[in-house]
Amino acid sequence: MKISFAATNPCHVYPIALELAQQNALGCYYSGYPAWKLKAPHTLPLRTHSFRTNVVYGMLKFLPERFRPGSRQLFLWQDRGFDQWTGAHLQACDFIHGLPGQCLHTFRGAKKVGARTVLNHATGPVREWVQVMEPEFRRVGLNLEDVSPYDADYFAREDEEYALAEWHGAASSVVREQLVRAGIPAGRIWQIPYGADGAVFHPRGAGAPENFRIAFAGLLGLRKGLKTLLDALELVGRPEWRIDFYGGVASESQHDLAAYKGKTPLEFHDAVSQERLAEAFRGSSVLVLPSLEEGFGLVVPQALNCGLPAIVSNRVGGKDLVRHRINGSIVPVQNAAALAEELVWWEANPRRVTETFGWTEPARQLIAHSTSALL
After folding, report:
1. Which of 207, 265, 318, 333 is the most buried (most CB within 10 A)?
2. Quick check: 209 and 373 in contact, CB under 8 A?
3. What is the mean pLDDT of residues 143-152?
4. How far is CA 93 from CA 25, 26, 112, 191, in A?
5. What local confidence, expressed as pLDDT, does residue 209 receive?
6. pTM
7. Band of the pLDDT at 206, cuts 50, 70, 90?
8. Which is more confidently placed, 117 or 73?
9. Residue 353: which region, alpha, beta or left (left: phi > 0; alpha: psi -120 to 50)?
10. How many CB atoms neighbour CB 28 within 10 A?
11. At a CB cut-off of 8 Å and minimum separation 6, what does 140 contact?
12. What is the pLDDT of residue 147?
């Protein structure tokens, strides 16, 4: 059996492709990233088409905003160019996994080489994301349409991709339920969780830190449940605590950050390397991810692998890995009081997680689903 993947950016499919290669089940990995940036082993069956990716990131890095197209236009140009190239160069395989918004031509090409198509979802259907987030943007005086890359053209393209997909890969029960609500038959959905790189994300053997330290990782935006988190910190009123934010801060967050009146200090570290993030997890007491919408949240297995308990909302797909008050907590979305209660509980009951979540088991599950689909 040969399973191939196509993705502009490495995201969640690259590590599972590496694992499949170890099990001799990888057909080819088609990448919009250059090979040198992937740091791929020389034995990996890899084809790259990175011209547009290099242009996009070069413009974002070196050109002032007033001299370049908006990010929305740039990333659409990147994804669609990569999709067209992959569709024209796709080699025969049993399955090709594509990502929503960047696999229309890939799936059309799959029909020509006899490959079965799998739409691989890191998040649920975009229409549901818009429905969840529109009131939140309105709350802070913003129009979601002004910042969202999703318009009628995008939805029409997405509908075509859905029509060409024979199977759907869901990262979690959250995404699976959203796909079912969107009309996808449950029997056509493969639920396969994500893992973490154990070579980077691993414990150091020490116990929880003496002072209670909260870690947040990811782009700090409205989707991540920032208001719920800040409200919870105001409720507990602990000046001796500390919360560290690892990742960029979206402009949409300024309204809630400016309104924060809590006693717990907020520390901002911007984006950091995976190695630096793992070290931060090892030095923290708990990870918090109270997102309004989160198909999975790779930081959940990454934190757990480092021994760090994870508090997540019930809309975070990574909750599938969390056992309440054993290796973390699951709280109702947008419930600041419940989040505050769990933070206080974990301060009083510090512990380290001993479970690990790698990519071997997800790869095994994918092979099993694929084998069944061929019967």
Report:
1. 318
2. no
3. 80
4. 10, 9, 11, 22
5. 77
6. 0.93
7. low
8. 117
9. beta
10. 22
11. 222, 252, 255, 256
12. 73
Q: Phi and psi (nearest 5°) for 175?
A: -70, -40
User: What is the arithmetic mean of pLDDT over 84-107?
Assistant: 97
Integer Cα distance of 67 and 215 in angstroms: 36
Q: What whole-number distance in Å separates Cα of residue 314 and Cα of residue 293?
A: 9
Question: Do residues 71 and 90 lie in contact, with contact meaning Cβ atoms separated by under 8 Å?
Answer: no
**Whole-number Å distance between alpha carbons of 150 and 145:** 8
Using DSSP bridges, classify how beta strands 328-331 and 167-170 pair: parallel, antiparallel or unpaired.
unpaired
**Within a 10 A sphere around the Cβ of 175, how many other Cβ atoms?**
24
Who contacts 177 (Cβ-Cβ below 8 Å, separation ≥6)?
none
Is the CB of residue 90 less than 8 Å from the CB of residue 115?
yes
Q: In the predicted model, is pLDDT for residue 373 greater than 90?
A: yes
Cα separation, 178 vs 294, whole angstroms: 12
Q: Give the integer Cα–Cα distance in Å for 238 and 92.
A: 59
Token reading at 69: 């197209």
